[in-house]
Amino acid sequence: MARCKLRIFLCWNLLCREVKAASGSRKAMKAVVGLGNPGDRYAGNRHNLGFMVVDRLAANWKARDWHSSHQALMCRISLPEGEILLVKPQTYMNNSGTAVKKIADSFGIKPADLLVVYDDLDLEVGQLRLRRKGSAAGHKGVASVISCLGTDEFHRLRIGIGRPPAGVEVVDYVLEDFPDDQWEIMEKVIASACHAAFIWMKDGIDEAMTRFNGLRLQRI
Known about the structure:
By secondary structure, the protein is of the alpha/beta class. The chain has a single domain, classed as 3-Layer(aba) Sandwich (Rossmann fold). It contains seven helices and seven strands.
C-alpha cells in the first residue's frame, strides 16, 4: 500500500511539472491595434491607415469572426506563431486609449505585446517606421493610448502620409481620402505594414525594426 501511494504521488508530481512547463512555454497573446475613425465616411481617409492595415491582416489570415466588445471591433486569431488579437477601437481617434486600456486589462496584454498602427505626418508617403516606445509626437490617438495605459512603452508602427500642401490645414488633410494617384503606392505600403506586423509578432520588435525602418516605397 505504501509503495502504491508513493507511485501515485510521484506520477502526480511529474504530471504537475509537465503541465507547468507547458503553460510556461505558451506564448503570451499579442494585439495589433489599428487607429482610425469608425463609419463609412472615414473609411478611405489618411487618418484611417491603422484600420486599413488591420483589415488587410484579417483578410490575409482569412479571419471573419469580428465582434464588438470593449468599445472596439475585435478578431481573435490562432496562428502557429501564437495567438493574436486584431483591434479597431470604435471610440473615434482622439479617445482610442479608452478601448485599448479595456482590452489590455481584459486579456492581460502587456504593453510590450501591443503594436499600435497609425498614420504619421512626419514620414513621407512610402515610409514605415517601427518604434519600441516614445512620445505621441502630436498624434492625438497615440496620446490617448499613452494617457489611458499610463505608459509610453508600447510598440508602434508608424506609416507615412507626408505633410499637407501649403494652405491646407492638418485636420482637413488627415480626414481626406488618398488621391487616386497615391493608391498604387499605398497598396504596397499596406502590404509591407502587414508584413512588418507579422515579423513583429513572430520575431520581435528588434527584427522588425531592422527589416523595415529603412524601407522607402516608391511608385513605379
